[in-house]
Amino acid sequence: MKITFIGGGNMATALIGGMKKQGFSAAGIQVVEPFIDARELITESFGVRSVAAVDAAALNCDVLVLAVKPQQMKAAVAPLAGKLTHQVVLSIAAGLRVADMAAWLGYGKIVRAMPNTPALIGAGITGLFADPSVDAEERRQAEKILQAVGVSVWVDDEAQMDVVTAISGSGPAYVFYFIEAIESVARTLGLDAESARQLTVQTFLGAAQLAAKSSERIATLRERVTSKGGTTEAALQAFAAQGVAAAIAQGVMAANARGRELGETLGRQGAGKSNS
Q1: What are the coiled-coil residue ranges (predicted)?
Q2: 8 has binding-site annotation
């Protein structure tokens, strides 16, 4: 499988690094990146071909990965318009809809992906949606690329990609928000900064790993920590009194709504701000 990346930023380099660890050949990977410093770093780090603009060699690929910011996408794909014949286009730009990208490219064989930042350490999760013109083998090719940095989940309705963005795309920020809050109160209660960070981060890490490895409901795992009349119950009762669960739900719903808005804006204008 030959792969060309349009854009050589953090997510592209994370994917390339993950693929190389999984045995992908550097000879089968190319990067189109306008900034010379980034090109030199990519070539030096991974031994792949990097060029400033799309050329015939770059188009000689099976999968074309669009790894530029959403607000830059329309301009970035302009040189590709009318030149694609068989390639699977894999977009990792948040918010951009398949129909809009197809209109810009004049080509519809597109897979839309929403990875998240833990992909940078090989622990990501990606939501994927494919245009009906993408066959099973082509879906497998797209999935193989994203699985180099974590796991993947397919959705059948493109509207669900806004939900994916709200849950897993934005989700790391929610976790960091909770870590910040607990770490802060740990310091307030007298722990030094290093101990507060270590205790908080490792607790989140361990709890997440336990949840991932357990077949039991998350509620059951929570209940096992919550002794009647104990410290955990006191904390959870305080959370309930403050409406923490409802606030979390409202936040995720707001992210979902904003994702729909951004998709509409980016599709109409080919520009704008997008924040996952």
Answers
A1: none
A2: yes
- Specify if 22 maps to a domain: yes
Is 115 part of any known ligand binding site? no
Residues 6 or more apart whose CB falls under 8 angstroms from that of 180 comprise none
Beta bridge partners of 90: 65, 111
pLDDT at 270: 54
Binding site annotation covers 6?
A: yes
244 among annotated binding-site residues: no
Beta-carbon count within 10 A of 257 CB? 12
Q: What is the mean pLDDT of each run of 10 residues along the chain (276 residues)?
A: 94 92 92 94 93 94 94 92 94 92 94 94 95 96 94 95 95 97 97 98 97 96 96 97 97 93 77 44
Alpha helices in the chain (DSSP H): 10-21, 36-46, 56-59, 73-77, 98-105, 136-146, 160-164, 171-188, 193-213, 218-225, 231-241, 244-269
Is residue 67 marked as binding?
A: yes
Q: Does the residue 164 lie in any domain?
A: no
Determine if residue 19 is labeled as part of a ligand binding site. no
Q: Which of 134, 157, 180 is the last residue of a domain?
A: 157
